[in-house]
Amino acid sequence: IDNALKLFHQMIRGYPRHSVVEFNKLVAAVVRMKYYEAAVSICKQMELEGIRGDAVTFAILINCFCRLGVLNFGYSVVGKMFKLGVEPDVITFTTLINGLCVRGKFAESVRLFNDMVRDGHQPDLITYNTLVNGLCKIGKTNEAVRLLKKMGECGFQPNIVAYTTVIDSLCKDRLVTEALDLFSEMIDKGIFPDVVIYNSLIQAMCDSGKWDEVKILLSEMGSQGIKPTVVTYNILVDAFSKEGMVSDAQNMIDVMIREGIEPSIVTYSALIDGYCLRGEMDEARKVFDLIINKGYVPNVVSYSIMINGYCKAKMVDEAVKLFHEMSDRGLTPNTVTYNTLIMGMSQVGRLCTAHELFEEMVACGQVPDVMTYSILLDGLCKHHHIHKALELFRAIQRSGFQLNIVHYTVLIDGMIRAGHISGAKELFSGLAMKGLRPSVYTYNIMIKGLCKAGAPNEAYELFRTMEEDDCLPDDCCYNTMIRGFLQNNDMSRARQLIDQMVDNGFAADASTSAMVVDLLLSDGKDKSTCGRVDTREEITGADVK
């Protein structure tokens, strides 16, 4: 940057004076070095020296303001251009659209694009690609697909960048059929895929469990001479591991090595996660030690995976050892690491240790998130410390943290478990005032609590309001309500609800089935129940004759 500034001052003093094009090249070089403030300063100095900027100069200045996060200044540059008689062109608008996207203001970028077209400015390929990326980032993938088609209508052939962006977005939205259709369309137009686009498709197929499609895609890559990268292999290792297919994951690592691709810490972390998910902590530890012996430095993610595995296996002391080892290696545990260990301690009843970890987390500058408070509240409720849970709940409210339906559901469940049904009802009835909508799980907890408290009528009223609140009951809600009627010897309404449940495509679970069979048998199959035995057999799959 010092050399650039020195050159600028030489250009200012030079005679004859350099053209604005030469100054633009210098400022652009400063921007490429990411010295945005210095670039703005040079542009201001140019103006003071009487060097009249052109559309390119102003585009560079807009880009700098956008990168610095002062978007209003970017807009003011456009206003200044009009005052100076410099007509904003497609580069000006594209720069501002890109700047908005960089700052995450995708909806605003779409509005600017529409204004640009309305005012008669013809977008170019870069403008379209920028906007396609912006639409995908805000989840408007269908609009991005339509924009691709519009590009063709306007004489612009979408390139591999545009197709890759949209296909990746479709894959992330789990719209794999649409992604494959667009992929085929791209090939039909003579645009050859690269490894990046294949990685997106392979990831989507792995996530959907479409292993045959994965094989086809890998075969296509091979036939086109496209070699898998470390990213490709990491996707496959991670997918196999998450499915519990650790042998296949290990085989994939062996293939990587044979192909001359060195597995990364991400690769081995995925394999470790696979062993942890299977509860095979000895094997997970072997891989963890192996990567250290190979010279890899485990990162926060690697440690968090191992700590999570130990916590799920109720081996919390081993988890604590690894937690301290992180600090010894100079690694700072993040919120996920703390949440994992706090949950592990809560699940084994070591609530004091969980609270100490929470305090340490805050002291270290890690910000508690939704999960942190859910874990703490759940731990207290599950271990019958409802009063402490209420104290924590109120303390969170006072802190200004925005509690959501998950936190309220945890506390409602805890109050019901503690026999405080009136307190649970009060919390539930106050949700609407706080702008919160009960989830299906919240309703199920309340219905179960009311039935257990001997208030099946009140529970049924709540059950009926679910549909009015646009929260349709699921199989759990039906089964809970049916058992509530059966527990209170209301066979008539239980039968009605079972019929309704079947009509809605749900089935009785094992507990409900057993209760129905027991009641039918104990009832002696009198006339009030015999007429419904066939329905009951259909639901339960039991032979009650």
- Strand content of the residues, in percent? under 5%
Query: What portion of residues is helical?
Result: over 70%
Oligomeric state of shown chains: single chain
Principal-axes shape call: globular
Indicate the low-confidence ranges by residue numbers: 526-545
Intertermini distance: 90 Å
The count of β-strands is 0
- The radius of gyration is 31 Å
Count of DSSP H/I helices:
32
What's the main sheet like?
none
- The helix-and-strand class reads mainly alpha
Write down the overall mean pLDDT.
Answer: 87
What does this molecule look like?
This protein is globular. It has 545 residues and is an all-alpha fold. It contains 32 helices and no strands.
Topology readout:
Blueprint: H1 2-13, H2 20-32, H3 36-48, H4 55-67, H5 71-84, H6 90-102, H7 106-118, H8 125-137, H9 141-153, H10 160-172, H11 176-188, H12 195-207, H13 211-223, H14 230-242, H15 246-258, H16 265-277, H17 281-293, H18 300-312, H19 316-328, H20 335-347, H21 351-363, H22 370-382, H23 386-399, H24 405-417, H25 421-429, H26 440-452, H27 456-468, H28 475-487, H29 491-503, H30 510-522, H31 527-530, H32 533-540
Helix pairs in contact: 1-2, 2-3, 2-4, 3-4, 4-5, 4-6, 5-6, 6-7, 6-8, 7-8, 8-9, 8-10, 9-10, 10-11, 10-12, 12-13, 12-14, 14-15, 14-16, 15-16, 16-17, 16-18, 17-18, 18-19, 18-20, 19-20, 20-21, 20-22, 21-22, 22-23, 22-24, 23-24, 24-25, 24-26, 26-27, 26-28, 27-28, 28-29, 28-30, 30-32
